[in-house]
Write a structure and sequence with these properties.
It contains four helices and no strands. It is mainly alpha-helical and 92 residues long.
């Protein structure tokens, strides 16, 4: 009986650890998408912006300076990227 209880407790502990680690990976993956979106918007790479938005990048996250991807696209006069970001709900 004690062995079964130990196995159950270890299983629960493992599930909790995997859940926490999995969430951390998802958070990092999301940040990576948003960082890539900033870069693509600044370069005017409409194809990459479109792909990143479909994968879940947030058009409204901001960089450390407070700029959104839309702000970066406007600064570079990248009209196609501006249109994509606005359609995705991006705002400055």
């Amino acid at each position: 009986m004690r062995m079964i209880v130990r196995v159950v407790i270890m299983g629960i502990a493992l599930a909790l650890v995997v859940g926490v680690i999995g969430r951390a990976v998802e958070i990092q993956r999301g940040r990576g998408l948003n960082d890539a979106l900033f870069s693509a918007a600044a370069r005017g790479d409409a194809t990459q912006v479109s792909v990143l938005l479909r994968k879940g990048a947030d058009p409204n996250t901001r960089d450390q300076a407070g700029w959104s991807a839309l702000t970066q696209a406007r600064a570079g006069h990248h009209s196609e990227v501006i249109r994509l970001l606005e359609r995705a709900g991006g705002r400055e």
